[in-house]
Amino acid sequence: MESVYSRKPWLEQYRVSSELPLPARTVLDALEEQARVRPQAPALRYFEESISYGELNEAAERFAARLKEWGVGRGERVALSLQNNPQFAVAQYGAWKRGAVVVPLNPMFREKELRYHLQDSGARVWVALDSLATQEARRAVASSPVERVVLTSEQDYAAMLAEAPDPEARVETGPEDLAYLVYTSGTTGSPKGAMIRHLAAAFNAEVYRQWMCLGPEDAVLGLAPLFHITGLIAELAAAAWTGVPLILFHRFDPEVALRLCRRWRATMSVAAITAYIAMMNHQQGRKGTFLEKCYSGGAPVAPSLTAQFEERLGAYIHNIYGLTESTSPSHATPLGARAPVDEASGALSIGVPVPNCEAAILSLDNPDREVPPGEAGELALRGPMMFSGYWNKPEETARAFHNGWFRTGDVAIMDRQGWFYIVDRKKDMIIASGFKVWPREVEDTLYRHPAVREAAVIGTPDAYRGETVKAFVALKEGAAAEGEELIGFCRERLSVYKCPREVAFVAELPKTATGKILRRALREMGGAPEA
């Protein structure tokens, strides 16, 4: 199918590349080159500590020597249960030097989750913070293929580096080799390991370098967790690929993030909108102290929030879109551009396709048909940044693709200028009295109320309407609002069938570690069946 969206009228206007050559080297190659050419240049800033490219590369060589001693080599898996610590970078690059595949895991996994991921990936080595080596974690490891456990504290990673560097530990790794198994969140069924090639990681690292105009004066702020695809590519890979420092601070904390942003003069980051909201609402958040290149992805962004953020902190949040399966970005708002808002849905544009990314919008009723601009359909993608399939799940892989296009499950539209907009997830759509209601549109409206800090909407069973709209709202500190007030606020701005009929107030909305709202948890709280 030849996509009608291959036209790129925005290219000349924003002076961005539409095509990039496929990389002949890997992110590991880039790290090693920095270590040779600029060994004293800072690679990582960890709180007040600075680690050079030479030091990071030598530490990775030491870890590779340990892996060689344990017989870990090409294609075998090394699982990491770490926060945003230097140990993550050391273990990743050390594993890559052995040709091994890195399996980043959420350190908040409980016994059942940890056991599943270790068993499914077949990891032979588990690297974890010592604080995570609980009795239940040890039970999970004992029933998995893991043969070696490496424990390290938050601050000290000397335990990882007992061996001297061994030049023979390094094996050749090419662009087509697997770099990662990154597990999807498992919102439907069991989590699936997306197979990410070194080619895809390097390609999108170059996308970040070019489209975000990264250069010698930049520093990347690690707001996204490194066990997520955004942290892996937008932060760890992009920094090494460009040769700039990555600022890490264990776990996200708005006060620490703002302080280190000023301390190390951070210029670029990609984070969930919830992280930016927390920083905006913190008392230390003020103009003149924030990033110049702000990008947000992972969850819909309300236009009202970008306006509030810019007014408070003086920085414009550029919208960006990607998935684990697209190795981070497939779409982005070019630096310096302002994403338009779709008049019909009120959605803020996710941007335009990044270089070499083909995007199509398929009919919700017939995936063989591509819908015209302005009509909603399922976003489909293909290009060198796409994953190679799901680990040991050929049937799941086959279902994810249609005629070579990866079906994202996101409902989107494209305007005639080439800007894309996410309307919502297919499975989150609410059918109220036969009418389609997209939660994002209702949430965007709620965000316009001055008392609302966070909002999320789900459908709940209704004997008469089939489903009805329920909103969960967290208020700003010191603010007050009643449910009827918010319902009335929506009725002034939306069709009546779209408006919440019930509002539940919560202190915090349930979220994933990356800041996405957990609608599954909201459905459990609201008595709605899981989609």
Provide an overview of this structure.
This protein has 531 residues and is an alpha/beta fold. It has two domains: 7-16 and 23-414, Rossmann fold, CATH 3.40.50.12780; 429-526, GMP Synthetase, Chain A, domain 3, CATH 3.30.300. Helices cover 29% and strands 24% of the residues. Strands 11-12-13-14-15 form a five-stranded mixed sheet, with helices on both faces. Strands 16, 17, 18, 19 and 20 form a five-stranded antiparallel sheet that branches. Helix 2 crosses helix 3 and helix 5 packs parallel to helix 6 (135-142). The chain is globular, with a radius of gyration of 23 Å. Residues 1-7 have low confidence and may be disordered.
Summed up, what is this model?
This protein has 531 residues and is of the alpha/beta class. It has helices at 11-14, 27-37, 53-69, 86-97, 111-121, 135-142, 198-211, 229-242, 254-263, 273-281, 303-313, 394-400, 439-447, 483-491, 519-526; strands at 42-46, 49-52, 77-81, 101-104, 125-129, 148-152, 178-183, 193-197, 220-221, 246-248, 268-271, 293-296, 317-323, 328-332, 352-353, 358-362, 377-382, 401-402, 405-414, 420-425, 430-432, 435-437, 452-462, 466-475, 502-505.
